[in-house]
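Let's see one such:

===
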Amino acid sequence: MATIFYAPDANPDALKSKTIAVFGYGSQGHAQALNLRESGFSVIIGLDPERGTAKRAREDGFEVLPPAEAAKRADYLQILTPDETQGDFYETFIRPNLTKGKVLGFSHGFSIRFKTIQPPPDVDVVMIAPKSPGHLVRRQYTEGRGVPALIAVYQDASGKAHELALAYADGIGSTRAGVLQTTFNEETESDLFGEQAVLCGGLTSLIKKGFETLVEAGYQPEIAYFECLHEIKLIVDLIYEGGLGRMRYSISNTAEYGDLTRGEAVVGDATRQAMKKVLADIQSGEFAREFVAEYRSGNKKFAAMREAEKKHPIEEVGAKLRGMMDWLPDATKSTAKKGKC
C-alpha cells in the first residue's frame, strides 16, 4: 500500500524563505503558481516575456522574467514545460544557472526517467504531480480543498528534499487531500501506460471501432455517435464517483448483464497482450526515443496523424450534433488543439 502524507506531515516554513520559479504558465503552471502565492510563498514566473501566457501571468500580478534570469534568482525551480521540449529548455536556460543547493522540481518524471535532463549531483531533484488538470487544482484550492498528488525524490543532495517537496505540495493544496509516495520511474511509466493503453489511446480507438461497426452495419452515424461516444461521459462519471460497482448499480440489468458477459469478448486477453507490448516499449525507452525524435524532426508525422483524425467521420458527425447541445460551452464544441504552456 502507498504511503500517504497529509497537511500535518508538511512543514511549509521550509520553503517560506525561498524563491520559487514556475517555468510555464499553462494549465498546471498558472494553477500551481497562484496556489503557492496564496499559501504565502514567493513565486516568480520564468517565461519568454513575448508569449501570450506571459501577459496573462503579469495580469495575474506575477513578476515574469526570462527563463535564464528566473533560474538564476530562484531557489526552487519547477519545470512545467512540455515533455518533448524540456531537455532543450533545461540545457539552454536552467543548467547554466542551476547552482549547488537548489531544488529542481517536476510534475511529471519523463525527462528524468528517460534522461533528456541529467541534473548535477549537488541539487535536489523532486516531483510533485497533481492527479488532475490545472483548472481543478486551482478550483479545489479556492474552495478550501485540494486534489491528490504524487511525491517522489530522485536526488537528495541537501538531505531535505522530501521536506521541501512536501512543503511545495502543501502550498498547492494537495496535502489537504493526500500526497502519495512514488518514484520517478513508477510515475512516468504508469502515467504513459494509462494514457496510451486506456485513457486516451485505448479509449479513442474503442470509441472509433464501435462507431465504425455500427455505421458499417447500416445504422445512422448520428445514432452511432450517441451510443459510442456521447454517452461515455455518463458512464465515466459514475465510475469516477464510485468505481465499477457504482456504475453497475446505476445502470439497467440489461446493460449490466451485457457488460459482464460481453466485455471480455471485446477487450480480453489479446488486448492484455497488446498492452504488455505497449508497457514494454515504455519501460525500454523506445516510446520516449520515438517521441523526442519526432519532435526534433519537425513533428511532420505527428501533424499528419492529427489532421487525419480530424477527418474521421465521428468528428464530422460529432461537430454537427454538439451544435445542438446548448448546455455545452462554445469552447468544447471545437476540437482545435489548445496550447499547454
